[in-house]
Structure formats: structure tokens, C-alpha cells
């Protein structure tokens, strides 16, 4: 097939210990999925239904990259998250079957232009320009379920310039991975290749030019991203 214009290629992520790559479809993100983070954002962490927003697939940035500080913001924030990669799609997936749809897991950052997001919240406008911008979705290689199983507990943390700023445990997720998949698949038909950023623990905060971000999820991996000076 020939396109009428010059067009970018399929976005992919590496797969651990494999020459094959994972094609990235849509990127869904869960909002406020750790109680302490909900509190720090000024919300009651009572178990309200999960809610979702999206990023474009080409917001993906590879582990180890140096990326430019994004446009317009003066308050870029880090959110370290475990990323769930869907191997099989489906709608109305039952909780008990949800994990059968997972290909593997990665470590990601839901980078956020907090000032733009805050303004959108105040005005009752969409969040996209606070969340879905260029280079806003760094992610490591994916570890298939055959290597890591389904991580449900274990440390998740982020260091900025060598200092721990975010720290939590996967067991503290308000909506765990199977529940999140089940809920999201009631709202949209999930497809193979979709990623789900599962939410961030407390400690979100500013990122400046020249900062080095190092994230970790037990059993899943380590992510390093540097912001250009
Ligand atoms: Mn997030």
C-alpha cells in the first residue's frame, strides 16, 4: 500500500529477551489510583469508580532517552506508574478472566503539564493538553507474563537526581490490574497492543531542565529518562 503523504511508522516497544517488538495501539491512563496520591491532589480516596484519560501512541519515549522539556508548561510533573500491555483485546472482560488478556508489564512515566491540567480542571475543560503531549509517555521494554507473572505487590518508586521522591507499593492500587481491565473494557473494546498506565503513588512533583529520572517497579524493571538542559 502507498500512502498519499509521508507518514510516521508504527510505534513499538522492545520485549525483554526477544528480537520481536510490541506494537503500541492506544494508551489509556487511570487517574488517582493510589489513595495517598488522591489525597495529595485534594481528593477523597474513597473508592469512586476508576476514570481514564488517553495519550497518543507516539507520546512513547524509550528507556534511556534524553528528551526536551515540553512546550508551554512551567510546571512539568513526574508520575511513575506500572504499565500493563494488552496481548488480547475484548469488551466486557470479566475480572476473573482479565489477566489472561495481558501480554506483559513495563515501567512508565505519565508526564504531566500540571499547570495546564490544573487550568483545565478549573475551567471544566478536557485534560488532553495537560497529559497527551509530545514525549509524555516514557516506557521501558516490556517483560512478558512468562517472565514476571502478574505483579500485584512490590515496591514502585521514582528518584529525581538520585533522591527518592515517589514511593509506594503495587498492593496499594485502589483498582488493581484485573479490576482496571474489566472496568475499562466496559467503556471501550480493548485491542491487542493497547497500554494501560495503572496510576501513580504519592509524591508527584516538578521536573526541571537537566533532571535525571530513575523509576523502578519490583520484578518489572527500571526506567531512566533525562531532560535536556
Ligand atoms: Mn497518572
Q: What would your notes on this structure say?
A:
The chain is an alpha+beta fold and 229 residues long. The chain has one domain: Fumarylacetoacetate hydrolase, domain 2, CATH 3.90.850.10. Helices cover 17% and strands 33% of the residues. It is built from six helices and 18 strands. It has helices at 35-40, 95-98, 114-123, 128-131, 145-148, 177-187; strands at residues 12-14, 21-23, 27-30, 52-55, 60-62, 66-67, 76-78, 80-86, 102-109, 112-113, 137-139, 143-144, 155-160, 163-169, 195-197, 205-206, 212-217, 221-227. The strands form five sheets. It has a six-stranded mixed sheet with strand order 4-3-15-8-9-12. The chain has a five-stranded mixed sheet with strand order 6-18-17-13-14, with no helix packed on it. Strands 10-7-16 form a three-stranded antiparallel sheet. A hairpin with a 2-residue loop joins strand 13 and strand 14. The protein starts with 11 loop residues before the first strand and ends with a strand. The mean pLDDT is 96. Manganese (II) ion (MN) binds at residues 29, 79, 81, 110, 197, 199-200.
Which tags fit this structure?
229 residues; alpha+beta; Fumarylacetoacetate hydrolase, domain 2; five-stranded mixed β-sheet; 6 helices; 18 strands; globular; binds manganese (II) ion
